[in-house]
Specification:
Subcellular location: Membrane
Strand content: 25-35%
CATH topology of one domain: Alpha-Beta Plaits
CATH architecture of one domain: 2-Layer Sandwich
Largest sheet: 8 strands, mixed
Radius of gyration: 54 Å
GO molecular function: adenylate cyclase activity; ATP binding; guanylate cyclase activity; metal ion binding; peptide receptor activity
Low-confidence stretches: 364-377
Keywords: ATP-binding, cAMP biosynthesis, Lyase, Magnesium, Membrane, Metal-binding, Nucleotide-binding, Transmembrane, Transmembrane helix
InterPro entries: A/G_cyclase (IPR001054), A/G_cyclase_CS (IPR018297), Cyclic_nucleotide_synthase (IPR050401), Nucleotide_cyclase (IPR029787)
Subunit structure: Homodimer. Can also exist as monomer.
Number of strands: 13
Number of helices: 9
Length: 377
């Protein structure tokens, strides 16, 4: 066998192999040529086809995967996100539990476990918040009841002071006007009607007095049996305390006429008024009471008990504060228990204004007489 020669042409796309065969008698050269140009093109086309096929398959697989994931994972997660937002708004705005998107389907996978845990958590939180709000509302109602009960026995300013600073509350007022009113012949009335009717009538009368006290800005102190006690000038001082008490006393006389006994007899009251220094304070541990002490209180009580039915008796100290604005009649010297002789007055009415006086004067003028068609002079 002879020598072999190998050569490449055209960028290694073509191969030539030459071999000199010595076995032959003559000199022969065997040449084999391999052209790979067409094969390479086929290989390139094959690679392109495979790549395109892989790309198409990848696109379809990706789209299919996205569709499946959107239905099974993405959409439920987005719905769960919306449910979380709705749950937060529902709790913040104290609304009824909303209809959640996640509750429309039942899942038995990990995401289903998350949704189930969320629903249980929201139910527990909403129930706990509802119970807390109900407890707070009940507490608020009870607190309002307690405050209202406290205001029924104490003035508002004293009740607020007692809530802020529990303890002994006592103040001295240099001048206040006290009124005592008593329903006359109450014992006889009690023997004629039933207890229910008696309490009902007494409640109606004293309730009307309470409205008068509120209208005139006065402070009701207490009722004892058929007696009613009210004061002006405390706990918030005011300069016109005597005038306010006088106006209420006159209104009480008019108000009592609205009530009748079963035998149609008129119910009468006796009123006494005095002005002077008093001490006011709260006493009691469980049942609070706002009360007054002082000589002025005792004198006011004596003005009522030593008065007359249907009259308003005032002391000289009250007279000095009312004499320029009210019509008062001097009663004279009265022997008062525990005080001796005292000069007292009857409060009749408020002095008429100039306009009222003019109207009254005109009303008293007699009309001219006429005779024969001509007025007589």
């Amino acid at each position: 066998m002879g020598r072999i020669f190998i050569s490449t042409l055209h960028s290694r796309d073509r191969y030539d192999v030459a071999c000199h065969l010595q076995s032959l008698k003559d000199d022969y050269l065997v040449v084999i040529r391999h052209d790979a140009d067409q094969i390479k093109q086929e290989v390139n086309f094959f690679i392109i086809r495979i790549a395109g096929l892989v790309l198409i398959i990848s696109i379809f697989v990706g789209i299919g995967t996205m569709i499946v994931l959107e239905k099974m994972v993405i959409t439920p997660i987005l719905n769960l996100r919306l449910d979380l937002i709705k749950a937060g708004k529902s709790i913040s705005n104290n609304q009824e539990p909303p209809k959640f998107y996640s509750a429309s389907t039942q899942r038995h996978d990990e995401l289903g476990d998350v949704i189930s845990a969320f629903m249980q958590m929201f139910t527990q939180i909403h129930q706990a918040i509802t119970e807390r709000q109900q407890a707070e509302e009940a507490l608020r109602v009870e607190k309002e009841k307690s405050v209202q009960l406290l205001l029924n026995v104490l003035p508002q300013t004293i009740a607020e002071q007692l809530k802020k600073q529990p303890g002994l509350i006592a103040d001295r007022f240099e001048q206040a006007t006290i009124l005592f009113a008593d329903i006359t012949d109450f014992t006889g009335l009690a023997s004629q009607i039933s207890p229910t009717e008696l309490v009902s009538l007494l409640n109606q009368i004293f309730s009307s007095f309470d409205r008068l006290a509120e209208r005139h800005g006065l402070e009701k102190i207490k009722t004892i049996g058929d007696a009613y006690m009210v004061v002006g000038g405390l706990p918030k001082p005011r300069k016109d305390h005597a005038e306010a008490i006088a106006d209420m006393a006159l209104d009480m006389q008019q108000e009592i006429y609205r009530f009748k006994r079963e035998d149609n007899k008129i119910i009468n009251i006796r009123i006494g008024i005095n002005t002077g220094p008093v001490v006011a304070g709260v006493i009691g541990l469980k049942k609070f009471s706002y009360d007054l002490w002082g000589d002025a209180v005792n004198i006011a009580s004596r003005m009522e008990s030593h008065g007359k039915i249907g009259e308003i008796q005032v002391s000289s100290s009250t007279y000095e504060l009312l004499k320029h604005q009210y019509v008062l009649e001097k009663r004279g010297i009265v022997q008062v228990k525990g005080r001796g002789e005292m000069i007292t007055y009857w409060l009749k009415s408020r002095q008429p204004t100039p306009v009222e006086s003019q109207v009254k004067t005109n009303g008293h003028r007699q009309a001219p007489s006429f005779q024969g068609g001509e007025p007589m002079t």
